[in-house]
Amino acid sequence: MIEEVPLDLGGGLTGILTRPAQPTTRPLWILLNAGFIPRSGPFRLHVDLARALARDGIAVLRVDQPGVGDAPPKRGDDVAVLVQGLDRLCAISGASRFVLGGLCSAADQAWKVALTDARVCGLLLLDPYAARGAWFRLGQLRLLLGRGGSAVRTVWRRLRRRHVAALGDRDLRDWPDPAAARRQAAQLVARGVALLALYTGGAAAYFTDRRQFAATYGASARSARVRLHHWPDCDHMFMRHEDRQRLQQAIIDWARALA
């Protein structure tokens, strides 16, 4: 039977550790929360995923990051707090390797921790960073044409009007510049870090075509250590039960490939 225990890792970092029935030497997974969502994840996605992974022999920690979800206000550098949490988790669980990830800004945070801490051997990136470019514009055009002539005319009228620029993803999330993203991806892949990147239709404001991934991350995107999914029919929060089930299975398949 799997076991779930609360943990306080210090620095405002709290979570629930889901342990498999039998001891394991596989990497310990850490699911980071984001936005206003607590460690349970959107529609309890993290709870269901943690229990499914535990049944497959993987220990999983669902985390409330400092200042996010149910956690107290953050103090100091987020990455430093998470790295210190990994130190504490090593002492508690005996784990020495970690798979880190989450949705949206949690994917951004996991990326930064992986660059800092060599104990991170895998990244689960749901709607992570991507650079706009030719493939993005092509995908935008394809989406627009699929909506019919009236949508094309509406967009054309908007482009002709002067307007104040709205806040975009780059304003709301801590993304590297394109050149840095390529260097960082190369560094992670060279270190042997495995990546699962999944983009939903909710990321259509900055990701519309799977070829955009290689354009963003360069040769590293074609590594055998990298797996990419693009689900344009799925929303950002995985609101539909069937989408959450589909995601869970994709993650479990990837986890088994890491073993």
Mean of all residue-level pLDDT scores: 89
* CATH class type: Alpha Beta
CATH topology name: Rossmann fold
- CATH architecture assignment name: 3-Layer(aba) Sandwich
Which sheet architecture does the biggest sheet show?
8 strands, mixed
Strand and helix order: EEEHEHEHEHHHHEHEH
- Helix tally equals 9
Write structural notes for this entry:
By secondary structure, the chain is of the alpha/beta class. It has a single domain, classed as Alpha/Beta hydrolase fold, catalytic domain (Rossmann fold). Helix content is 41%, strand content 19%. The chain has helices spanning 45-55, 78-93, 105-116, 134-145, 149-160, 169-172, 178-190, 211-217, 241-258, and strands spanning 3-8, 14-19, 28-32, 60-64, 98-103, 120-126, 194-200, 226-231. Strands 1-2-4-3-5-6-7-8 form an eight-stranded mixed β-sheet, sandwiched between helices. Strand 1 (3-8) and strand 2 form a beta hairpin. The two termini are 21 Å apart. The model is unreliable at 149-156 (pLDDT under 50).
